[in-house]
Design brief:
The complex is a heterodimer. By secondary structure, chain A is mostly helical. Chain A is built from 20 helices and no strands. The N terminus of chain A is likely disordered. Chain B folds into three domains: about 60 residues, no CATH class; about 35 residues, no CATH class; about 110 residues, Cytochrome Bc1 Complex, Chain D, domain 2, CATH 1.10.760.10. Classes of the chains: A mainly alpha, B mainly alpha.
């Protein structure tokens, strides 16, 4: 208290201690009354919401039962808030419509629309004529419970809204400062790193300069005493070095070896497209679809269990979801355009196995039970699909040598396994059933 | 003078450094091919299009099947063990032990708006046993789970953005019969789009078995 008084008097030296004390008292009083007002308000709010909940629960329906019913039957299409999803948000539904109408609508919405009820028809058209599933087995009590739950769900956040909003605002403000701070921090870091690198480069340059200038300014005279410039001396030294047979042959050998290595590397990479990641006509992300949304590979690549090719999905499979969602995206618009113009989407094939090598997806996926990722890499993390494996013959053979045949639950292999166990050691590998035969893949 | 010479050397070094480090293959480049006429198929392959087809519309190697063509595995009611696989015409003569009196080869032609007919007429021709149920589970995981959720509660990762995916366990779904579910997979329902191009009838019937199990919540 004393400190505060001191502070105040420090701020305004001309204000007398008495006046400052008075203001302090007033401030304290105001603060106290505010606190008590808040204290009083809090239970009042609580009581009000409790009363509301009681009214909802006691008079009209069981909110707890309604919650379970809502989550099972309604939540897929309706939000308890005013937010629209498939159907309208249900906040304040009891004010909008009377109970009897709601019961009729929930039991059979199509009948209400057919009866020509103007509100129903308007609603039906507003939501793209999506038919609401009729729920004839929800009793009036059930519906009361659901309505009570909706009211309760909307009342509960309202009571707790003020502090929550305050906290959220505080959090947002904090977040904002952090966010605005984060990039600048990064920027500073990058700048510092750049500065360090530049200083290092400068240092190295200085060293070079001193060495070179020493070389230039040091012995600048010939044995005859003439002054010779740097270029001439360099020329002379180079000539001596070039005339030295040891240096000459070493240089030539190093050169020949380097060229040979580059040539061999170059020839080995002929026909190998590892790392090929072409740009596709539509920026489809496997990371999003297969990764984040965990859509099974089979959903789109329907042939992978049935045929040689894994199949590139036709546009109708895209439409299974994108007929409804994300249809404003320019990339999705390309699919719509392709369908409307009956134009094929020209996807670029990523894995180009040469024609002289036979490969069958169903054989490897369905029969052998391999995971797609074993050959294609972590597809579910790829924004743009890339050829991860080399797809060379050595790569195929290597796997055929190492991999056990998937004989489990496959009667075709029963006799083979018996014979193998009788006459050979180890497990039945793919190489044991002809996985290394030339004509299996080249015919 | 001194500095000019030094600059020259530094310049050469820099160019060399860039030249040695920047040699990276363009991701759009397939690289070199040896003897492309051995790499590329002489016959027309459906999923490999090197150059435009001279005759087909839009230069495509693929052609749409003739109107009205039905793939063999797309018959719905094929009796006995030959269901769906192999030669479906043989099914007429096979002694049907699993299905009673439905050895007719019928193409599923109940139109989309006649779901009540489907409910009344259709019976699941695939016997319910451990094997078909397990297969149904695998197929459900492939084709349905990302929306309908592993337990059919409508809480798959896609459902969160797609909205409107129901919970099978809701009371409202308890009296839905096999025919209804089959029809919905085939033609779609509400926000769900048809899946008949991805799932064969036999697979649909197996999924139906699994969905019935999920519905009961066991």
């Amino acid at each position: 208290m004393y400190k505060q008084i001191k502070k105040i008097s420090l701020f305004g030296r001309k204000i007398s201690v008495r006046t400052s004390l008075f203001t302090l008292l007033v401030a304290l009083l105001v603060g106290l009354t505010q606190v008590s007002a808040q204290d009083a308000a809090a239970p009042a709010d609580g009581a009000a919401s409790g009363a509301a909940a009681d009214a909802g629960g006691g008079a009209s329906g069981d909110a707890a039962k309604g919650e379970a019913l809502f989550k099972n039957n309604c939540a897929a299409c309706h939000a308890v808030t005013a937010e629209k999803s498939v159907g309208p948000g249900l906040k304040g539904i009891t004010q909008r419509r009377d109970f009897d109408w709601l019961v009729k609508w929930i039991h059979n919405s199509q009948a209400v629309i057919a009866s020509g009820d103007p509100y129903a028809v308007k609603l039906y058209n507003e939501y793209n004529q999506a038919q609401m599933t009729p729920f004839p087995n929800l009793s009036e009590d059930d519906i009361r419970g659901i309505l009570a739950y909706i009211e309760q769900a909307n009342a509960a956040p309202a009571a707790g809204a003020a502090p929550a909003a305050g906290a959220a605002a505080g959090g947002a403000a904090g977040g904002a400062t952090v966010q605005s701070g984060a990039p600048s921090d990064l920027f500073v870091l990058v700048l510092v790193a750049l500065l360090v690198v530049m200083l290092l480069v400068l240092g190295v340059l200085l060293v070079i300069v001193t060495i070179l200038s020493k070389a230039v300014s040091g012995d600048t005279t010939t044995p005859e005493g003439e002054k010779v410039n740097f270029a001439d001396r360099l020329k002379r030294n180079l000539l001596t070095a070039a005339n030295n047979p040891a240096i000459r042959s070493a240089t030539i050998w190093v050169f020949i070896l380097l060229v040979a290595k580059a040539t061999i590397d170059g020839t080995y990479s002929i026909g190998i497209q590892q790392g090929y990641a072409p740009k596709q006509p539509i920026a489809f992300s496997h990371k999003l679809h297969a990764g984040e949304y965990a859509i099974d590979c089979n959903y789109c690549h329907t042939g992978v269990n049935r045929s040689k090719s894994a199949h590139i999905p036709s546009a109708n499979i895209c439409m299974n979801c994108h007929g409804v969602i994300k249809n404003e995206s320019p990339e999705i618009q390309k699919i719509y355009a392709a369908i409307e113009n009956n134009q094929p989407i020209e996807w670029v094939r990523v894995h180009n196995l040469p024609d002289f090598a036979y490969f069958n997806h169903s054989q490897h996926v369905n029969v052998a039970g391999l995971e797609c990722q074993q050959c294609h890499g972590e597809i579910q993390q790829m924004e743009v699909v890339e050829q991860r494996s080399s797809l060379t013959m050595g790569w195929c053979i290597d796997c055929h040598r190492k991999t056990d045949v998937n004989t489990k639950g496959n009667a075709y292999y029963d006799n083979l396994v018996q014979l193998h166990d009788k006459y050979s050691e180890g497990t039945l590998k793919v190489s044991d059933i002809g996985g290394l035969e030339c004509s299996k893949c080249h015919y | 003078m001194k500095f000019q010479v030094i600059n020259k050397y530094v310049g050469v070094l820099a160019v060399a450094a860039i030249a040695f480090t920047s040699c990276k293959r363009d991701p759009n480049d397939t690289g070199w091919e040896f003897a492309p006429n051995m790499y590329r198929s002489v016959g027309y392959e459906a999923y490999k299009q090197v150059e435009k087809h001279p005759i087909n519309p839009m230069g495509l190697n693929m052609r749409e099947p003739v109107n009205g063509t039905v793939a063999r595995q797309h018959y719905t009611n094929v009796g006995g063990r030959d269901f769906g696989g192999g030669d479906s015409t043989a099914a007429v003569n096979s002694n049907s032990t699993t299905m009673e009196g439905s050895t007719d080869l019928m193409v599923y032609n109940i139109p989309k708006d006649s779901i009540r007919t489907a409910e009344r007429v259709l019976k699941n021709p695939v016997p319910l046993n451990e094997k078909t149920l397990a297969e149904g589970k695998v197929l459900f995981e492939r084709y349905c789970q990302h929306c309908h959720g592993a337990e059919g509660e409508g809480n798959g990762p896609v459902a969160e953005v797609y909205k409107g995916v129901p919970n099978y366990k809701a009371a409202n779904f308890q009296d839905m019969n096999d025919g209804h579910i089959f029809h919905v997979i085939t033609h779609g329902w509400g926000r769900m789009w048809p899946h008949k191009s991805q799932v064969t009838p036999e697979e649909r019937w197996e999924i139906v078995h699994y969905v019935q199990q999920l519905k009961k919540g066991s």
